[in-house]
Amino acid sequence: MTPPRARPGAGTDRVPPGLRTAAGYTWRLVLLGVAAYLVVAVLDRLQLPVVAVFVALVITSVLRPFVDLLDRALPRSLAVLIALLCAIALVGGILALVGTTVADEWSRLGTELRGGLGRIDHWLTGSPFHLRPGTATDLRAKIGEFVAAHRSALLSTALSGASRAVELLTALALAVFCSVFFLHSGDRMWHWARRQLPARARPVWSRAGRAAWHTFAGYTRGVLIVAATNAVLVGIALAVLRVPLVLPLMVLEFVAALVPLIGSPIALAIASLVALAARGPVVALLVLGLIVVIGQIEGHLLHPLVLGWSVRIHPVAVALSVTGGAVLAGVLGAVVAVPVVSVAWAVITELRDHGPAPEDSG
């Protein structure tokens, strides 16, 4: 028999096994990175429907327990209608109350702000700043000059913001439309989608879907409870300190707290500016102290109690998720980053720690 011929260069293959293994992982990671980039690019182009579906899932997760409760005594369609009408009435009532409060306090607030500028000016001229008198007044005059000089640019920016507002209203209308069907027949929609998969893949997708929805719904309800608690605490503190516009600042704190870690401090910083103009530097410093106090309450009490059972990711991962989401998609990315990472981690943990579920007949 003729001995087999040696492969060309077989004797010269001196690549270490570790380097070969690292190269194999590297090209796989590169492919995953390219796939992730393409997914983000596609989602960015489809931002409006993606936002609408995300908001629809949020609405569904919040209203689903109420709808299920009403479903015990009413037809499902009527239960969905009542739940949506109650939610719209609640949100509309809060916005109307905020508008009424601002309108009622506007004239008094203007007087307080003018007096506050004088107090700030007097404070800046003293120790430790020792600025020249009239600094705050000059700053207000310079702001007025800037607005007058850049009126056209500000107008175009306002028009751009108006078009953005129209897009947001469109996304909200689409979200409400989708949430009606998710609340009414979401289970049937999920079962239909699962039946389109190969039979061997259905148990895995069923387990992953249950873990994803459990985590998303738990996070959404939990973060709303945390945000509402923060808003109530801020409102009580601002009312005790007699800071104006308590209700609008409470709503601002509630909305800002939906962005973990960074939202609440930003809202309280704005509240401290209002307190500085209306009540002076001492009250403003007390409001700034609320950032530390509420941050400790949120991080060491509310999040472990409310979110600990549904979201199990480290605070460092939360901070990196919020930062990465903000870099990729701005404020919207910062809002959706933590639920997306939480859902992904919950699915990975569920599929890793448990074997495939027995196949069901559905």
Q: What amount of the residues lies in strands?
A: under 5%
Give the radius of gyration. Answer: 27 Å
Largest sheet: none
**Which class of secondary structure composition applies to the elements?**
mainly alpha
Mean pLDDT: 78
SSE order, one letter for each helix or strand = HHHHHHHHHH
- The figure for the number of domains is 2
Characterization of this structure:
With 362 residues, the chain is mainly alpha-helical. It has 2 domains: 46-196, no CATH class; 200-357. It is built from 10 helices and no strands. It is globular, with a radius of gyration of 27 Å. The model has no long low-confidence stretch (mean pLDDT 78).
Summarize the structure.
By secondary structure, the protein is an all-alpha fold. It has helices spanning 17-45, 47-71, 76-125, 135-149, 151-195, 202-240, 246-256, 263-279, 281-307, 315-353. Helix content is 82%, strand content 0%.
Throw out a few tags for this protein.
globular; 0% strand; 362 residues; 2 domains; mainly alpha
Blueprint (SSEs and pairs):
Elements: H1 17-45, H2 47-71, H3 76-125, H4 135-149, H5 151-195, H6 202-240, H7 246-256, H8 263-279, H9 281-307, H10 315-353
Helix pairs in contact: 2-3, 2-5, 2-6, 3-8, 6-7, 6-9, 6-10, 7-8, 8-9
